[in-house]
Write a structure and sequence with these properties.
The chain has one domain (2-133): Nucleoside diphosphate kinase-like domain (Alpha-Beta Plaits), CATH 3.30.70.141. Helices cover 37% and strands 18% of the residues. It has seven helices and four strands, in the order βααβααβααβα.
């Protein structure tokens, strides 16, 4: 089993899309092992997006991500990172598959509805910004016997 960090961004929360987005992950068989709604702190945003520091879009990105509540979660399942990135679709909503989250709901590249980690290493580093180890819940879901 693999774990993936996912964040539903402020624009999706404000548009009331959280349940639709979460439903996509659950219906694919991914298990939510941690989830909460937060108002991200600037220090958390800076840690999450440290690789973009110095780029022209860094400050607008921080401003956007701090503009409202976000949903942060850890999803678990086989090939979770690849699965989530496929469900999310391309960063550019115009290039994303029409059935993907960004293809259905995305309006722009910079405000693209969801964030997901691109590797096991980054997933763990990113979820540790928002979750303590004891907040991650171990349990079996109904699909595990099907795998």
């Amino acid at each position: 089993m693999e774990r993936e960090f996912v964040m539903i961004k402020p624009n999706a929360v404000k548009r009331g899309l959280t349940s639709e987005i979460i439903k996509n992950y659950e219906q694919k068989g991914l298990k939510i092992v941690a989830m909460k709604m937060i108002k991200m702190k600037k220090s958390q945003a800076e840690r999450l997006y440290t690789q973009h520091k110095g780029k022209d879009f860094y400050e607008p990105l921080l401003e956007f991500i701090l503009s409202g509540p976000v949903i942060v979660m850890i999803l678990e399942g086989p090939r979770a990172i690849e699965t989530v990135r496929n469900i999310n679709g391309e960063t550019d909503p115009l290039k994303a598959s029409p059935g993907s989250i960004r293809g259905k709901y995305g309006l722009s590249v910079r405000k693209n509805i969801v964030h997901a980690s691109d590797s096991n290493k980054n997933a763990e580093e990113e979820w540790k910004i928002f979750f303590k180890e004891e907040e991650i819940i171990e349990y079996r879901n109904g699909l595990e016997n099907e795998l």
